[in-house]
Design a protein that fits this description.
It is a single chain. The protein has 15 helices and no strands. By secondary structure, it is an all-alpha fold. Helix 1 runs antiparallel to helix 9, helix 1 packs antiparallel against helix 10 and helix 9 (about 270-285) crosses helix 13 (about 350-380). The chain is globular. The two termini are about 25 Å apart.
Length: about 450
């Protein structure tokens, strides 16, 4: 693929593979949840709890992966040299290696302390410890390099290859889960530890396949020769974008962890309902996620090529499509929710919780669709500090404090938490829209 052609890549060519990748990943994650629900409701609650911390690890590694992706997109748009492109990828490799070693040790030795912060049934605590230490700790290295290589490949416009890798890795995960939980071929039932190991194996497969694809695409500049001579500017550039970019996701994830801690005081049924509802909603916002990621890539290309007027108008159209997709999916899910919820649980209390939350979820998904597109556009343009600072304010003011007041103090329970989350998403989405309209992002381009 010629570097000059990247800005002209059709949006659908970028978006569709990302959407398929996200859909399949979510589908497999849902199958995981269903498999665990057939094994133990306590296992569902435990894995749902520590999955937020697993996502926390993803956010940390995305500091580097996202930073590399944004810098590479603008560099490609500006037609930078192969040496400069490779330095960015090498800088990401060095930082990911150091961070994965540190996080592995932290998870292995710190999980007991972490779980003591929650009010948990003994069995839920045991399952949570097993899953997080194996997947979040021992397999941390594979997850980190999978994320980095995937980010680099997508920044060059090769989203189809990333989709294929995701599908194969997730199929590996499903097969591993089945072997662990159902005892096929006379194998012992390993339970939650087996599920965690299967997830780790899928990340190893992902690492290997990403490397194969990167080697095959000759225009993707990423080799380790001379890695000890990476200039400091490459590290600085990646971190300049990556740290504040991930700051928004980090704040959001920590606020979600805080909310889950509050929900845990409502009992295991409430925690399970939270996990099931979020599992269903991931299918709703899959299109918005894909369009948001593609918007970030396209914004990088256009801004790097100094075509700000073109990308300014295009982003509004991208957002309209994303919001329409989310709202249509929200209507469909509520029309067929009884059989859908029945796939996950037959416990009347949990069923009722999930059914109610899906009605209020339209409020959340409207705001989320705005956020995903405009924050992606701002990131791609290099304007990262404003979304981070406002995101932190909104997460803790509207989401956490609002959820506490409505859910705990006013006694609205899970509905109160949902209203708090929806208020955060919607108000933040409107503010990001106004930021894009102001065009202040134009002065934050990485390539001068």
């Amino acid at each position: 693929m010629d570097k000059k052609s990247r800005g002209a890549l059709p949006m659908l060519k970028l978006t569709l593979p990302i959407a398929m990748e996200q859909f399949f990943r979510i589908l497999v994650s849902s199958v995981d949840t269903m498999m665990l629900s057939s094994y133990s409701n306590d296992a569902v609650a435990a894995v749902g709890l520590v999955s937020q911390y697993s996502f926390f690890l993803v956010v940390l590694f995305s500091v580097i992966g996202t930073g590399c992706s944004i810098v590479l997109a603008q560099y490609l748009g500006a037609e930078k040299s192969e040496t400069e492109l490779n330095h960015i990828a090498q800088a990401g490799t060095i930082m990911v290696f150091a961070m994965s070693v540190f996080m592995t040790l932290l998870v292995i030795f710190g999980t007991n302390w972490l779980l003591n912060r929650y009010t948990l049934d003994p069995l839920v605590r045991k399952y949570a410890w097993q899953y997080f230490v194996i997947y979040g700790g021992i397999c941390c290295f594979f997850q980190a390099f999978s994320l980095l290589q995937g980010a680099i490949l997508r920044s060059y416009g090769y989203t189809s290859e990333a989709m294929v890798v995701s599908i194969i890795a997730n199929l590996t995960n499903v097969l591993g889960n089945a072997l662990s939980l159902y005892g096929w071929f006379g194998l012992p039932v390993l339970g939650v530890p087996g599920v965690a190991a299967a997830s780790g194996l899928s990340m190893l497969v992902s690492c290997i396949l990403f490397r194969v694809y990167i080697k095959r695409r000759k225009d993707v500049v990423f080799h380790l020769h001379g890695i000890t001579k990476v200039p400091r500017d490459a590290f600085r550039m990646v971190l300049k974008v990556g740290v504040p970019t991930a700051g928004e996701s980090l704040s959001y994830n920590v606020s979600q962890i805080t909310i889950m801690a509050m929900i845990s005081t409502l009992g295991t049924y409430a925690m399970s309902a939270q996990v099931y509802t979020m599992t269903i909603l991931r299918f709703v916002f899959v299109a918005a996620i894909a369009i948001g990621q593609a918007t970030q890539i396209k914004a990088g290309y256009f801004v790097g090529a100094k075509q700000n007027d073109i990308v300014y108008k295009k982003v509004f159209r991208y957002q309209l499509v994303a919001t329409t997709c989310s709202m249509v999916m929200m209507v469909v899910v509520n029309l067929i929710k009884r059989p859908v919820i029945g796939i996950f649980t037959d416990i009347p209390e949990v069923f009722s919780f999930v059914s109610t939350l899906l009605i209020y979820s339209a409020y959340i998904e409207f705001g989320r669709s705005l956020n995903l597109i405009y924050v992606g556009a701002l990131k791609g343009a290099g304007d990262v500090r404003f979304p981070v600072l406002y995101g932190i304010f909104s997460n803790w003011t509207f989401m956490v404090l609002g959820s506490y007041i409505l859910g705990i103090k006013f006694g609205l329970g899970l509905v109160g938490f949902w209203l708090g989350i929806g208020t955060d998403e919607t108000t933040r989405g409107i503010v990001m829209l106004l930021r894009w309209k102001s065009r202040r992002w134009q002065k934050h381009a990485l390539v001068k």
